[in-house]
């Protein structure tokens, strides 16, 4: 075998390995790639992509949402009972104002929490509003992550940059999770996809 042929075969093999690794490390939903696993801190445990789906409104694609957990769970009850860090990642497909984000979050919280629960969470909701309103808007291609860190609470990152201080309280993060996987989620098909029980779009 000539040296040139050996080089050519090596290049082909390298490309095959690269594409195989990429396929193993990412899931694609509506043209958006999401990593199969992430870490929320340098020394934290790996979280695995439980499921991901597309949020739509009328005819518009709004965002792709992925749910990351320490171990995969197929029901909302199991997800909510699971201890340890968690992440909901939104990959934005359409420009949204901060006011639109806040309104959507409020609706999701209101539909999945009792009036008493909402009253108890008023300080945390106000902190969330402050963080989102400070962002002004999110553009197509931006990302928003809602992370739960057991030692500190709910951390918001936009495009990988931490915004504001962590919002304390595991119950608050569970309320945030219910926006997507509660009994009245923002979209039923999205909930099922995030729980890994429906085909990805």
If you had to describe this structure to a student in words, what would you say it looks like?
The chain is of the alpha+beta class. The protein has one domain: 3-Layer(bba) Sandwich (Chalcone isomerase), CATH 3.50.70. The chain is built from 7 helices and 11 strands. The chain has helices at about 5-25, 75-80, 100-110, 115-120, 120-135, 170-180, 190-195; strands at about 25-30, 30-35, 35-40, 45-55, 60-70, 85-90, 95, 135-140, 145-150, 155-160, 160-165. The strands form 3 sheets. It has a 7-stranded antiparallel β-sheet with strand order 3-4-5-6-9-10-11. A two-stranded antiparallel sheet has the order 1-2. The relative contact order is 0.16. The model is unreliable at about 5-25 (pLDDT under 50).
């Amino acid at each position: 075998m000539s040296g040139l042929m050996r080089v050519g075969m090596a290049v082909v093999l390298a490309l095959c390995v690269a594409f195989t690794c990429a396929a193993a490390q990412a899931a694609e939903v509506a043209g958006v790639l999401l990593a199969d696993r992430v870490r929320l801190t340098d020394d934290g445990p790996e979280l695995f992509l439980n499921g991901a789906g597309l949020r739509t409104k009328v005819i518009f694609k709004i965002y792709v949402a992925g749910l990351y957990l320490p171990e995969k769970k197929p029901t909302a009850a199991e997800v909510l009972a699971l201890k340890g860090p968690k992440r909901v990642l939104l990959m934005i497909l359409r420009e949204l104002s901060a006011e639109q984000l806040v309104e959507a979050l409020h609706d999701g919280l209101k539909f999945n929490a009792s009036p008493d629960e909402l009253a108890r969470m008023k300080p945390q909701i106000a902190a969330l509003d402050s963080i989102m309103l400070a962002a002004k808007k999110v553009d197509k291609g931006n990302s928003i992550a809602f992370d739960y860190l057991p030692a500190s609470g709910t951390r918001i990152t936009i495009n990988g940059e931490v915004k504001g201080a962590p919002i304390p309280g595991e119950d608050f993060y569970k309320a945030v999770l219910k926006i997507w996987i509660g009994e009245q989620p923002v979209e039923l098909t999205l909930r099922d996809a995030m729980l890994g029980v429906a085909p990805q779009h």
